[in-house]
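Okay, can you check this protein?
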Amino acid sequence: MPPFDLQKTTAELATGYGSTETFEALRQGQLAKRMYLVQRLLSSAEGHPDAEAAGLPQAFAHLTRLQHEHPEVVGRLLSSPITGGWLLRALHHLANLPREDAGVVLRQTFGYPGWLAAAAMIRSRTAGEVTVVVRRGVVMLPGVGLLRLAAADVDGYGTAELRITTDGILTAAHRGRETTIDTTVSERSDQPGEWIPVGRLSSDDDPVDVILDDLDPFRTMDTRTMPTAISASQLRVWQHTFRGAWQTLQEYHPAYAAGMAAGLQSIVPLSAEPVVQVLSNTWPEAYGAIRAALPSGRFNLASVLIHEFQHAKLSALLDYVELTDPAAAQKRFYAPWRSDPRPAVGLLQGIYAHTAIADFWRVHRNHPDANKNLAETQFARWTVQVDRAITEFKNSGALNEAGASFVATVHRTLAPWLDEPLSDNAFWVAEEVVLAHQVAYRVRNLTPDEGHVRQLAQRWHSGDPAGEVHSFDRAFRPASLTVDWRKGDLPADYVRLAGAGSGVRAGAGAGDLALAAQDYPAAIAAYGAEIAKSPDAPDLWAGLAVALTRARPSDGMRPLTEATETVAALYGLLAAEQPGEPVGAEALVNWLTEGPR
């Protein structure tokens, strides 16, 4: 049972926001989950030789003693995102690693509680000694810093004796050598030595304190992850961008900022330097952490923080309440922000997070430093796409009663935004984005009936009308269920939303450039020529669909827009049958739409 009022918490989070009380409830829920997992791990590892060798039982006994004297310090360490991720990895390794491969990996993994105990001693100003595992030359002190005792290739696994004083002086004895460092040193150097303090991100006028976790070996699920400390100068760039993002959140998005102030504990950097392509995610087992590349600019980082923390909130809630029907677990759904079909829970997560993204751009339009054209276009885009996803999801049968209520509340938040005034440019670009994504998704993921495609080919050759062109919404390509969702940007990243942003993404083709210039005949010709070379390229069919729809808005392009998988498969078949006589993509669409050639 959750240690909070589940119905009240669910209803409040469905609004998209949440009170301080709600986030404290989520924190307590995660702590209860961690304590359960700790007991499960101790029980499963009892008597295991690698657990004994790594000092797992002794480390937890040490943490238990410290918890009696310093419950807040130990509670915060056990509630930290990385502890949650480590617990999942430890249980997974214990259950799945072949015995012959387990030794060093399990001992490295089981050593984490010793690191937690040492960190708890430092953070609570408790003097004493503790034995810890040395993993590939390092000892991590979560929330404090990293101690490097040997080169990674010299020491895959070992132990060290730590002596800690009340003023934070630590002496480590390892392989006949003693190393003494001052753990209160919190400033990083561009030339890191034996001691690297954790990076911290803060705000000028708010007590927010977020760890920039580039050191902890358990910050990802990859067992090979090792510390890749960013430099002091790179940390300053992160700090500058974070400070600007946090100020934006406080001033323009205070309801989201309040939740993050209560629940955001760490950011795991996926890049040291700013990047143009937004890259971020969350790990459900690591509530309170966000993994993100440093975006180019404070507004982009503010958007990333809102997006990913929504995922974290919902993941924490889903530990205690089921919102989808278990009978729908194997079903896959179209999500207008992904290139691959999504399970019901994944679609629910996307709806929740992208509603907040729509809200961000809705408000951001009024920021004095905003690119108003881009902000309005993004607002229109996400509002339309999320509304479509919600409407289809509500009618899918995949939601249970609690889930239907949750999604209905989300929809009530979003619905009034559809009536907000928009510029003509923002409206038509949003329409193009929705269309392009739908078309590319269909080509990438859906497989039409082969017999139907051959029947259409016979009619083409005989000059007869095409007749009904069927769509195949549930006929997924097997590969589409494991597709890399980061691939498949639509025409050159929507050609930066048709000029709403700054410049065109690298890789834009002739069709993309013509489309951005609104030269639709040139775009149609260019896409047709490119499709002749790459008949199954989803982004080319998306560009052609947008160009044709804009050039001939009254014609109706239903086969191309709603059965693109059939159109693309038919084109490929005709091209294979007539290798010396290329089929015109526009001519084929005209025939499917209008009748005989």
Q: What stands out?
A: The radius of gyration is 27 Å. The chain has a mean pLDDT of 88.
